[in-house]
Amino acid sequence: MSHSRRSSRIPGFHRKPPRERLQIVADFAGLDAETAARLADTGGLGLDLADHLIENVVGSMNVPLGIATNMKVDGEDVLIPMATEESSVVAAVCNAARQCYDAGGFTTSLSGTLMIAQIQTVGVADPYAARLRILERRDDVKAVCDGCDPVLLKFGGGFRDLEVRVLDTLSGPMVITHLIVDTRDAMGANAVNTMAETLAPHIAQWTGGRVYLRILSNLADRRLARARAVWPLEAIGGEEVRDGIIGAYHLAAADPYRAATHNKGIMNGISAVVLATGNDTRAVEAGAHAYAARAGHYGSLTRFERTADGHLSGTIEIPMAVGLIGGATKLHPTAQASLKILGVTSAERLARIIAAVGLAQNFSALKALATTGIQKGHMALHAQNIALVAGAVGDEVDRVARILVERGTVRQDVAQAVLEELRRGG
Ligand code: MEV
What we know:
Number of helices: 18
Number of strands: 10
Shape: globular
Bound molecules: (R)-mevalonate
Radius of gyration: 25 Å
Structural class: alpha+beta
Strand order of the largest sheet: 3-8-10-9
Distance between the termini: 40 Å
Low-confidence stretches: none
Mean pLDDT: 96
Helix content: 40-55%
Order of helices and strands: HHHEEHEEHHHEEHEEHHHHEEHHHHHH
């Protein structure tokens, strides 16, 4: 089919109902009826609700939701809903948690539920004096900020602090004002962005400069979630395993090439819970990576050490801007179910559990990498993926996957050959 006259200029697309939009897309891309019907099947989300969450909705992208077992966080057992398309992520958390369960599981804390908003002011003649003029107005700043969100105040949140920096930039000095706001059970982006926008004209007046950006910082380093756990030597398989894990951490601490992968593994766990609860995965990821680079070089978000008794101690510290009352969290039925499964009633508890999941994920990855390698554990599920891609259905999937693993060649061409053999009765 020739697509030479296809146009992406579709006037009024955003005003059409989702099914009409889907028809337009189907015509544009030559989707068959079955493919279009699958897109329109939004499962538990509901097409109407999806249509209210983002623009130009035509369907949904469904991701599996798995439950990690064995987690004990601050003395309480908890089941962890994880939304991810990646095999082995859920199993990794289950395994790590099992190996420290008897030793008490995870102990966690949170530095606070403070978010930061930034206001950028340029063209200030006397930036250092302007900085002080802003700081002198602390009471006015507090009044403006708190006036923006009476509901937040009612729940014990609101303006907490003011910081002003003079930054030397490529386009000269800038006066950067930080509003530090306790956003309690909200992730807080809306609350602090409104405050920054409302305060901006005042800042312009006090400084004599011009305000441009007014937006939260995703480097939420006043909202640090911390978790620690001890893995007893006998639970992990001895000193060599312990030292292998510590050595793996040392490599991540020394080398950004390794640290990126090390932290990616941590985020495998963290983003899966953030997504399952309808929170903003990109906000948490941005904060995590910026925090990992705070020392001026990119390093590890976790640390592993030997305890006085020779066991393995693991710790994590990571910005965790998650909430319970944001749009997707409140509206998405799966997010609500996930919160219920977790049994959390505060953003603080959610953030602390998520940190524990990140540490668990990292422990499992490092243990596998320092011992048998990552592929062995991956292969069983990966083989099922490959069998599916090769066209296996029903119980063929398991049978093909098992044969692939036994033969040690988990490849699609081999899967196809095995499938043909099976179907021929081989
Ligand atoms: C794969 O998604 C994650 C790992 O690469 C993490 C790591 O290397 O630590 C296994």
